[in-house]
Structure formats: structure tokens, C-alpha cells
């Protein structure tokens, strides 16, 4: 009897062992993701640090077009008309708002994700994560697809799979668009794996609107997300989300081509970065996801960042199990199983909890990487993706519009 029992345990152990080895070492394929996790050391700032402390500020927000705009991701303010706003939603729409009301739907992409919007000379430049770079002419109302993701194939044989943000710069009669190309491995639906591996195929592209030429100016980035240009037009500031830092790339000047770290060990994952409206003091708004100061809850990445092999095992198993469940659900027509399968398959199941317990945060930083202001939004636990600053002449107050993954378009009046 004992013999039988121990051989049963023994064989169960052997099977698990073989399975683990297989999941870790087998070649990538339909059921196993192409992952090579790296060791990361990403300490969080000290709890008494000013940035963590966030001046204990939480602002009330007015939710704009709550029922109409579902999960706003990106936004652009019209510099000439502070009551006009352009917003891209995760449901695939690009809206124009006037006085906080939607007045027009400019573009729509079934299953698309409009991101990275910038208004430049009456033209709205934006990204659709799955298809590339677009421009919408506000005067002629025409939409043009400037750059398709697969057009980057000639660069090194591996086309881009996920564009995220852009910034426009004028250079000698040419309009240049700098783009954050997040991955050549995973599309936006699989962003969790780009974040958790992390995938280091991210890069910065330079696109010329004059001759449609695309070049790579910076590579090997781990989830480059937001991008902004400095006032002297000499540097790009880039949020490298998976490394929880902001880097600076010199476009011009003495250190041309050099890349340095502007700020690291942020208390959350930096999403987007945008210049504030303060003309005399150069400062930037950065939206953070998963801020780790809320009840000091740590996230999946804090627990496993120094364990690359364990991460590979967890991520591959999650995708494998998700794929199997999804296919079974598909076979038997079970929506529940399909939903569960897809939440595992996309990796969201691994970090959903982190999003629920760690709210977003906005920080304002200067060129010397001092934190000037930081705050959260009252009664809102979601991510703060992007921040655009406006101004209320009557109240003499700074106004911020914020977008959020899974949240609302918010309008906040800053009070010191
Ligand atoms: C930077 O470029 C913008 C156009 O992209 C221009 O309006 C601005 O004057 C430039 N700033 C400097 C300091 O050259
Ligand atoms: C595009 O840029 C590359 C690198 O700067 C250059 O070698 C190439 O000639 C350019 N192509 C066009 C069409 O301008
Ligand atoms: C701009 O920043 C300076 C220095 O921090 C501050 O004194 C000034 O009030 C700010 N102006 C606006 C309009 O926010």
C-alpha cells in the first residue's frame, strides 16, 4: 500500500518536473511565448520621500462625458482654443470636444486604440496602436494614414507591432514625428507581457513628413511609452515604463546621440509625459500607473523582478493555460470560459489585482528632475495615463485634464 502511494506521488512529481522543464526550455510556438526575461533591480523610493508622500494631495475631479467616452487614453488640447479638446478612447473613437461636450467624432477604428495625439497647425497627428501613424486635417476634414506598422519592416526585418506615442518637431521646413515603437514582439492586446518580461525590442523612430523616411534613433528600450521634446528642442524625454524611469535622448548639441537617465526608481510605472503650461519654468506632467504608496501594497513586478526564470515559468504557464481554456470555451460555446481564458492569455489576470489596489498618480517634474507637485484623484483608483494642462482666466487657476485606462476623462482645478 505504502509502495503504491509513494510511486503515485513519485510519478506525479516526475510529471510536474517534466512539465516545468518543458515550459521553461521548449522553443516558442503556438502555445509557448517567445520570452527571455531579464533580471531587474527596481527599488521603490523611500516611503518618506517627497514623491511618495505626494504632499497628501487628492483633488476632486469633474468627470466629462462619462457615458459617452469609454476609457479615454490620450488627449490633445488646442493651443489656440482652450475649450477645444481631442480625445482618443480605448473603444476606438477619436472625439472632438468643445466646452467639455463631444461635438464630433473625427475617426473610428473597430478594435482600434487611438493613442498619442498632438495638434500641430490645425492638423491632428495621432497613433492607432495596431495600424500606425495618422493625420487628420481639421480644415479639409480628411484623414490620412501616414505610416503603417509593417512599413518599418525594412529597418531590420522585424516590423513594429505596437506604436504608442508621438511628438512633433519642426526641423528646416520639415515636420518630424518622433514615435515610441513599443514592441516588435507583442501587439497592444499583449501589452502585459511586454511589461512583465520586459520585452526590450522597443525603440524610437523618426518619421519625416516631407519624404516619408523612417529611421531608428534609439533601440533596446523596455516599453517606451510617452515622449516629449524639451524647450530648447535639443532632447527627447521618454518614459521607459517597464524600467520605471524617464530617460533623456540628446538630438542635438554637444552630447548629440547620447542617452541618460533623467529620473529612475519612480513609485509607479510612467505612462505619458507632457509639457506643463508654465512658460517661465520648464516643467512636465507625468502620469503614473500602479503607484505603490497606497497601503504599501506591492505589485507582481516588485515580487518577481529579480527572478527571471520564475517569471518566465509564470508568464508562459499563464499564456498556455489561457490558450487551452479559451479553446475549450470556444469548442463548447462557453462565454465564461472564453473570458477567463482570454484574461489569462493576455496576462491581465496576473496584474488586475495590482490595478485594483494601487491607484494612479500625477507628478509634475522640472528639468533637474525635482518633483514640484504630485497628487491623486479623489475616489478614483484607476491609472492616470496622460495629463494636459489648461488655464482658467476667470479663476486664475491651473486646470488639468487627465485620461485613464479603465477610468474617465477628468477635469481638475489645481489648488495649492
Ligand atoms: C523648437 O521648435 C519649435 C517648432 O517645433 C519652435 O516653434 C521653437 O521656436 C523651437 N525652440 C527653440 C528654442 O528653438
Ligand atoms: C532615409 O534616411 C537614411 C538615413 O538617414 C538615408 O540613408 C536615406 O538616404 C534616406 N532616404 C530618403 C528617401 O531620404
Ligand atoms: C510658473 O512656475 C514658477 C516657478 O515655480 C511659479 O512661480 C509661477 O507661479 C508659475 N506660473 C504659473 C502660471 O503656474
Topology at a glance:
Blueprint: H1 2-25, H2 50-53, E1 58-59, E2 62-64, E3 72-78, E4 81-89, E5 93-98, E6 101-108, E7 114-120, E8 123-128, E9 132-137, E10 142-148, H3 153-156, E11 162-171, E12 174-183, H4 191-196, E13 202-208, E14 214-221, E15 224-229, E16 235-240, E17 245-250, E18 259-263, E19 269-275, E20 283-289, H5 300-304, H6 308-332, H7 335-345, H8 348-357, E21 361-366, E22 371-377, E23 386-392, E24 397-403, E25 409-413
Parallel strand pairs: 1-22
Antiparallel strand pairs: 2-25, 3-4, 4-5, 5-6, 7-8, 8-9, 9-10, 11-12, 12-13, 13-14, 15-16, 16-17, 17-18, 19-20, 20-21, 21-22, 23-24, 24-25
Helix pairs in contact: 6-7
Bound molecules: 2-acetamido-2-deoxy-beta-D-glucopyranose (NAG) (3 copies).
CATH fold field value of the largest domain? Neuraminidase
Based on secondary structure, the structural category is: alpha+beta
Euclidean distance between termini CA atoms:
75 Å
Q: Please provide the count of β strands.
A: 25
What is the subunit organization of this protein?
Answer: single chain
Poorly predicted ranges (pLDDT <50, ≥5 residues)?
Answer: none
Mean pLDDT, to the nearest integer, reads 92
The percentage of residues in β strands lies in 35-45%
- Give the second-level CATH assignment, the architecture of the largest domain: 6 Propeller
CATH class of the largest domain: Mainly Beta
Largest sheet entry: 5 strands, mixed
Strand numbers in spatial order across the main sheet:
1-22-21-20-19
| Helix percent band | 10-25%
CATH superfamily of the largest domain: TolB, C-terminal domain
Pfam family, one: Str_synth
Domain Strictosidine synthase conserved region: 169-248
Family: Belongs to the strictosidine synthase family.
Transmembrane segments: 6-25
Amino acid at each position: 500500500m505504502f509502495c503504491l502511494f509513494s510511486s503515485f506521488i513519485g510519478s506525479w512529481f516526475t510529471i510536474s518536473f517534466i512539465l516545468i522543464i518543458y515550459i521553461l526550455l521548449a522553443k516558442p510556438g503556438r502555445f509557448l511565448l517567445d520570452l527571455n526575461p531579464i533580471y531587474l533591480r527596481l527599488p521603490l523610493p523611500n516611503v518618506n520621500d517627497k514623491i511618495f508622500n505626494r504632499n497628501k494631495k487628492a483633488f476632486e475631479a469633474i468627470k466629462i462625458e462619462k457615458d459617452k467616452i469609454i476609457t479615454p487614453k490620450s488627449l490633445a488640447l488646442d493651443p489656440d482654443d482652450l475649450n477645444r479638446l481631442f480625445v482618443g478612447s480605448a473603444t476606438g473613437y477619436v472625439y472632438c470636444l468643445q466646452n467639455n461636450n463631444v461635438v464630433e467624432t473625427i475617426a473610428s477604428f473597430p478594435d482600434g486604440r487611438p493613442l498619442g495625439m498632438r495638434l500641430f497647425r490645425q492638423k491632428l497627428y495621432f497613433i492607432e496602436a495596431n495600424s500606425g501613424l495618422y493625420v487628420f486635417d481639421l480644415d479639409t476634414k480628411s484623414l490620412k494614414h501616414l505610416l503603417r506598422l509593417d512599413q518599418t519592416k525594412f529597418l531590420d526585418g522585424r516590423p513594429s507591432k505596437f506604436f504608442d506615442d508621438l511628438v512633433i518637431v519642426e526641423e528646416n521646413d520639415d515636420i518630424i514625428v518622433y514615435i515610441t515603437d513599443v514592441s516588435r514582439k507583442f501587439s497592444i492586446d499583449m501589452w502585459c507581457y511586454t511589461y512583465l518580461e520586459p520585452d526590450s525590442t522597443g525603440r524610437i523612430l523618426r518619421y519625416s513628413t516631407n519624404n516619408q523616411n523612417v529611421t531608428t534613433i534609439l533601440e533596446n528600450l523596455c516599453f517606451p511609452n510617452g515622449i516629449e521634446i524639451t524647450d530648447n528642442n535639443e532632447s527627447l524625454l521618454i518614459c521607459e515604463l517597464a524600467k520605471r524611469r524617464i530617460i533623456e535622448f540628446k538630438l542635438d548639441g554637444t552630447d548629440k546621440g547620447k542617452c541618460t537617465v533623467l529620473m529612475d526608481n519612480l513609485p509607479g510605472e510612467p505612462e505619458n509625459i507632457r509639457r506643463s503650461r508654465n512658460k517661465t519654468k520648464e516643467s512636465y506632467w507625468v502620469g503614473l500607473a500602479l503607484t505603490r504608496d497606497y497601503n504599501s501594497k506591492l505589485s507582481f513586478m516588485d515580487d518577481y523582478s529579480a527572478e527571471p526564470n520564475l517569471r518566465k515559468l509564470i508568464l508562459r504557464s499563464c499564456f498556455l493555460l489561457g490558450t487551452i481554456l479559451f479553446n475549450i470555451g470556444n469548442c463548447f460555446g462557453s462565454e465564461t470560459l472564453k473570458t477567463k481564458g482570454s484574461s489569462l492569455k493576455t496576462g491581465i489576470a496576473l496584474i488586475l489585482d495590482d490595478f485594483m489596489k494601487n491607484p494612479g498618480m500625477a507628478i509634475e517634474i522640472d528639468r533637474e528632475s525635482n518633483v514640484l507637485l504630485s497628487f491623486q484623484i479623489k475616489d478614483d483608483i484607476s491609472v492616470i495615463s496622460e495629463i494636459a494642462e489648461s488655464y482658467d482666466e476667470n479663476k486664475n487657476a491651473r486646470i488639468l485634464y487627465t485620461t485613464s485606462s479603465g477610468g474617465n476623462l477628468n477635469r481638475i482645478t489645481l489648488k495649492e
